From TrEMBL:
Annotated signal peptide: 1-17
InterPro entries, per database record: TPR-like_helical_dom_sf
SUPFAM superfamilies recorded: TPR-like (SSF48452)
Record keywords, A-Z: Signal
Entry protein name: Tetratricopeptide repeat protein
Organismal lineage: Bacteria, Pseudomonadati, Pseudomonadota, Gammaproteobacteria, Pseudomonadales
UniProt-listed Pfam families: TPR_19 (PF14559)
Amino acid sequence: MRYLILLLVLASPMVCAQQTVQPSVFQALTSAQQAQQQGNYGQARDTLQQALNQVRAGSLEQALIEQRLGYLAIARDRHEEAIDWLSKALAHDRLEAEAASQDRRNLAQLLAVAGRYREAVTLLEVEQARGALPRDSQRLLVQAYSQLRQFDKAIPLAERVVREEPGIDAAWYQLLVGMNYRLQRYSQAERWLKPMLRREPANAEYWRQLAAMQSLDNRPRAAAASLRLAYEAGVRFSATDLDSLVGLQTQAGAPWQAARLLEEMFERGLLPANAERRERLAQLWQLARDRQRAESAWRSLAEHSGRASHWLRVAAVQMESEDWNGLLASLARAESDANAEQRRQIRLWQGYARQALGEPEAARRALLEVSDGRQAEEARRLLEWIDNQS
């Protein structure tokens, strides 16, 4: 998900009237301000450095000069230097409360731009504890939390931002979608996708995301219905887009949802059920350990193609289910199209099935035919086990 980056718009506070400052320091601050406004940054810095060398450590005057040096560094695009000066100025705890609050918020923006999100969060949480954060600071705190993957903290703030400004950039809705997705709150992610679709009903990416959230939320029928609704409204999806949507469920560790979504797409005419996709469906059912559906899917392919590889897939599911008679029948169907490697696999599995059915001699005959290839060692071990049992 993409995150918003706020523009660094920083105030440049002058000395507060409530604070009494040495006249020489006040003059230095004023002169530096004028030089800065005229673009004479070097002169402004020299004036402030000279004044800094003459003030008492820990004084209000030191804090004000360091504060001004911080804002001067910002004007010169020296953000690390600005962070250093503003941190020093705040550390003295001498600045008037309103000015210090503004400095903390500005410093938090600098830290966020520098990628120092944890420090930015610390400052903004201090401000939050003191009272309501301005809207820009709320947004910055959301972004910092999200960068730190503290989504539980970010989401309530982001929701407040969106509620207060429903016409806000779509990226904020997308941020809420992304954070809820990361927390596997798929129905909440779906909730924030819907305003985006109302704004841009022809946006295919939003429809794909909606279908993905519904599928991950164990509602593959709703996901396929959403895609069909979009299609009927004129939104066109490529086969690659829809295949990728199924892949998303697989990557998320949800093969059952992926299989159901693919099946629904077949039924609604969104994807052609070619041999490659039917193989994928069978593989997904097998990955989901839904043996009944996996066997049915592989059998449908095998009966249509007659390929040994497909019949061996049927046999593999039957072996997991310990359906020994069904396994033997499938192996017999595989044999006519089998190559040498596949025939060795057939004999090995026949050995297992015959032994399980209480036919050790038939098992031994099958296993003795597996004299080479990668199955040979497994056949030898099974033969030894049969002999020991005898």
